[in-house]
Amino acid sequence: MNGTLLLRIAVAIILLTHSVFGMFNNGINDFGNLYLNQIGFAPFGVFLAWSIKLSHVVAALLLILNKYIKLAGFVTIFVLLMGIVLVHFEEGWFVVGGGRNGVEYNFLLIVVLFAIMFPNGFKKNAIE
Hints:
- By secondary structure, the protein is mainly alpha-helical.
- The protein has one domain (5-117).
- It has helices at 5-24, 27-41, 45-65, 69-88, 104-117.
- The chain is globular.
- The two termini are 16 Å apart.
- The model has no long low-confidence stretch (mean pLDDT 94).
- Its main location: membrane.
- Keywords: Cell membrane, Membrane, Transmembrane, Transmembrane helix.
């Protein structure tokens, strides 16, 4: 069993739940129209919103299958970083408690994705 299996499944569940529900409750279209288009991405807001959410679904499947892990990780990290820059940074650190809608959740997901992508660290010939 791969040492990253539990983390890969957990992140896959998070990515799927964060994406799939918005596909059925108009959340993705609302995010595209009511947020992305309003901050300067018009007329591509809906396309970008769907691209983001579909990238999450693909990344989740790749994580579960343990295929193309680095590609899935880098794409997802890019999306999470853009979420920090565009949405969460101005709200501060905390998601709940000391604030609302902050960066801490994205930060944790980014660190976990790096741990999945580089289970032996960043060194070329890391020894366990």
